[in-house]
From TrEMBL:
Organism field: Microbacterium stercoris
Name by which UniProt lists this protein: Transferase
Keywords: Transferase
GO molecular function: transferase activity
Length: 135
């Protein structure tokens, strides 16, 4: 049986320890809070001080940076990037390769398409079809 953790050196020469999440085997840094009912798929990363709520999914290759908050039943699709201190609301969907900037907010139930970029500090609210509404 293999190790349940991986040590990775960051850009500052510090070694960070990531454990493999029980549901999906993605990597969760020491200090992150990921609910056991959340799914962190293989190849996804959740950084220190980030939070992922129950029922949320962090898909393969997605990256959730420090102090980001992912709400209940939210879906962060493959290769998406959630910036530091960003918030993704309950049941929101962030599309493939979408970038959510530092401190940005994605409202609950919002549907963000593929290959979009949400600027730092921005707020996105959509209707059920994914059409952007005024924030």
């Amino acid at each position: 049986m293999g190790k349940n953790y991986v040590d990775i050196e960051n850009d500052h020469g510090e070694t960070l320890r990531y454990r493999k999440h029980v549901n999906g085997r993605g990597l969760v840094a020491h200090g992150a809070k990921v609910h056991p009912d959340a799914r962190v798929e293989l190849g996804a990363y959740v950084e220190p001080r980030a939070q992922v709520a129950a029922g949320a999914t962090i898909a393969r290759g997605a990256w959730v940076e420090s102090e980001a908050v992912i709400g209940p039943e939210a879906y962060v699709d493959a290769n998406a990037h959630i910036g530091p201190k960003a918030q993704v609301g309950a049941r929101a969907h962030v599309g493939v390769r979408t970038r959510v900037g530092e401190g940005a907010r994605v409202a609950k139930n919002a549907k963000i398409g593929d290959d979009e970029a949400i600027p730092a500090g921005g707020t996105v609210i959509t209707d059920a079809r994914g059409l952007h509404l005024a924030a």
